[in-house]
Amino acid sequence: MSPGQWTIAVLPGDGIGPEVTRAATTILQDCAREFGFRVNLVEYPFGGIAIDQCGQPLPQETLDGCLKADAVLLGAVGGPKWDSQPLDRRPEAGLLGLRQALRVYANVRPIQLRKALRGLCPLRLGAETKVDFEIIRELVGDIYFGAHTTEGQGDAERASDVATYSVPEIERITRFAFTRARLRARRVTSVDKANVLATSRLWRRTVTRMAADASDLTIDHLYVDNASMQIILRPDQFDVLLTSNLFGDILSDEAAALAGSIGMIPSWSAGDGPPLVEPIHGTAPQLVGKDVANPSGAILCVSLLLREQFHLPEAADLIERSVDAVLAEGMRTADIAEPGARTISGSQFASEVRARMRNAGERAKPQGA
C-alpha cells in the first residue's frame, strides 16, 4: 500500500448493490480529489451475478483481486433467483468464503441514531437519550462455518448445523473489542447463551479471564435473549457489544431499526488481510431499477474506510457532516421519509451529499485559492 494511493476492489453484487456501490464510489472519488490521495477502483463479479457469469459466487479472479487490494467495497449479495442453489453454491457462500480468505475476523457495526432521524426511532426516547454504540461481531467462526448436514427423507429427514469456537478465536475478537472500547466510553457487554450452549460457556469463561487483565474497562455479560430486550428497553446503556457470529448478525439487524432504517448502517470487517466494508442491508430485489434505495449505509462505509483503514479522519468527518446536512434539510429516501419531508431518489440523495461536500470544501479553501 503506497502512501496516498490505494487500490479498492469493488464488488457491486446483486439487487440494489450496484446502485448503492455507485453512490459510494463517487463519494470516494470526490474525497480523493479534495484531500489529495488517489484510488484505483477495480470492479469484479461476486455473488449471484458471478454465478450467472462464471458458474460460482466467488470466482478465482475476484478472490485474487480482493487479496491484492488495499480494501474491498461490497454492495450486497443474494436474491430469490438463486434460492434453489445448494448451500455451498448460493451467493451467501461466496460471502462466507471471501471473509474467510481475507481473514477478516472482526466486524464493526456502528449503531447511531442521527439527530435528524430521531423521529423515526420506534422507541420513546428521552430528550437526552442517545443511541450510539458498536456491535463487535466475530465473523469467521460459529455455526456459519460448521458442518451442515441433511439426511433421510420425508418425515425421517433431519438436518444439523454445528457451531464451534476455540479459545484463540474468542481471545482474538475479545482483544479487538477491548481496543474499540478504549476508543469510546470503556464499557464492554459480552453477549452469550452460557446457560444453554457449550460454545457460550467457553466464550464467557474466556472473556471473564481476559477481563481480569483489563481493569481500565467495565465489562459485563448478558444472555442474548436479555440483550435483545435491553437494546429495546434502554439502548443508551451500551457502548461496545461483543458477540459471536450468529448473535451479532441477529442483534445488529434489530439495533438497526433504532437508527430509523437498516439502510443507514455501514459495517467494517477487519483482520489479518485487506479490510471489507459493506452496508448491512440486503439486496432488496423489489427495489431494483426504481432508484429508491437508500445509499447512506454504503456512503458511510466510505467514511469508515477512510477513518479506520486509511487514517483520514478529516475526510470521514466531511462525509458524515454532509450526510447529516442533507438529512437536516428534510431530504429523505423513501425508507426514512417522514411527514413533511421531501422524498428524493437514491441517486439524488447521493448528489445532494456530494454537493454539500463540495460546498464545505470551497468554504475551507483560503481566499484566492
Question: Mind sketching the topology for me?
Answer:
Blueprint: E1 5-13, H1 17-35, E2 38-43, H2 48-54, H3 60-68, E3 71-76, H4 91-102, E4 106-112, E5 132-138, E6 148-151, E7 158-161, H5 167-182, E8 187-192, H6 198-211, E9 218-223, H7 224-233, E10 240-243, H8 245-256, E11 268-270, E12 276-277, H9 296-309, H10 313-328, E13 331-332, E14 342-343, H11 346-364
Parallel strand pairs: 1-2, 1-3, 3-12, 5-10, 8-9, 8-10, 13-14
Antiparallel strand pairs: 4-5, 4-11, 6-7, 11-12
Question: How does this model look, in words?
Answer:
The protein is α/β, with parallel strands linked by helices. 40% of the residues lie in helices and 18% in strands. It has eleven helices and 14 strands. It has helices spanning 17-35, 48-54, 60-68, 91-102, 167-182, 198-211, 224-233, 245-256, 296-309, 313-328, 346-364, and strands at 5-13, 38-43, 71-76, 106-112, 132-138, 148-151, 158-161, 187-192, 218-223, 240-243, 268-270, 276-277, 331-332, 342-343. A ten-stranded mixed β-sheet has the order 2-1-3-12-11-4-5-10-8-9, sandwiched between helices. Strand 1, helix 1 (17-35) and strand 2 (38-43) form a beta-alpha-beta unit. Helix 5 (167-182) packs across helix 6 (198-211), helix 7 packs parallel to helix 8 and helix 9 (296-309) packs antiparallel against helix 10. The longest helix has 19 residues, at 17-35. The protein is globular and about 60 Å long. The two termini are 31 Å apart. The relative contact order is 0.15.
